[in-house]
Write a structure and sequence with these properties.
Elements lengths: L2 H6 L6 H22 L8 H11 L12 H26 L14 H22 L6 H10 L5 H26 L3 H4 L2 H28 L1
Helix pairs in contact: 2-3, 2-4, 3-7, 3-9, 4-6, 4-7, 5-6, 5-7, 5-9
């Protein structure tokens, strides 16, 4: 990793640094925190999985070379368990969980983004799409849990989203990481993955807002 990148990102936001420092166990703990615990909203899920896939190529570190199948399966399972945990937190705490004033760690805008995704796509598609949207993937699960969506319906879409995200982004890092030009600049491409994943949803939300004002 280049010194420029290390200086540009705090260590806890640098997916590659986290993978190198904590290995597979650390990856799984971070995935669970980001998908299941509200305080994990700031964690770099997409770039983390991208870096985990790259690590499986053996080109990230001589001492870190996890099996790609193991990484994909483990991450997908933990992503599903994490989101299910977030759902039950919302089911237990109810709407009061989100009716708080802004604080250092909680912003009403985070919930608003999640609500917009649900309103635009419906609960099922939103649960899947939210996986690829930073912050939204943390707050949408308890938000849906506080509503009237059945556990069965949430679980079904949660499994679909967890596998698509946990396996898809990890495999992307694995295969692209084997391309020399990308492998040598993996941190830049990890950031691009995050940006690209957000653009389509952001465009749709902007269109929806404009349409609602007409």
């Amino acid at each position: 990793m280049s010194a420029t990148t290390v200086q540009a990102l705090p260590a806890f936001l640098d997916g590659q640094h986290l993978v190198e420092s904590f290995g597979l166990v650390g990856i799984l703990l971070i995935v669970f925190a980001e998908t299941g615990l509200l305080l994990g909203f700031f964690l770099p899920g997409d770039s983390l999985l991208f870096a985990a896939g790259f690590a499986a190529t053996g080109r990230l570190s001589d001492s870190l070379h996890p099996n790609i199948a193991l990484v994909c399966i483990s991450v997908s399972i933990v992503a599903i368990i994490g989101a299910q945990t977030g759902f039950y937190i919302g089911r237990k705490a109810g709407p009061a969980l989100f009716n708080r004033e802004d604080s250092r760690f909680f912003k009403r805008s985070y919930v608003t983004k999640a609500e917009e995704v649900i309103e635009r796509y419906g609960a099922g598609k939103a649960i899947v799409l939210a996986r690829f949207i930073p912050i939204v993937r943390t707050f949408l699960n308890p938000l849906v849990g506080a509503g009237d969506l059945s556990v069965r319906t949430f679980t079904l879409w949660n499994i679909v989203g967890g596998v698509l995200w946990g396996t898809g982004v990890t495999l992307l890092g694995y295969y692209l990481g084997q391309v020399d030009a990308i492998g040598k600049n993996i941190e830049i491409f990890a950031i691009l993955v995050v940006i690209i994943s957000v653009i389509p949803i952001a465009v749709e939300l902007l269109k929806a807002r404009k349409a609602s004002r007409v």
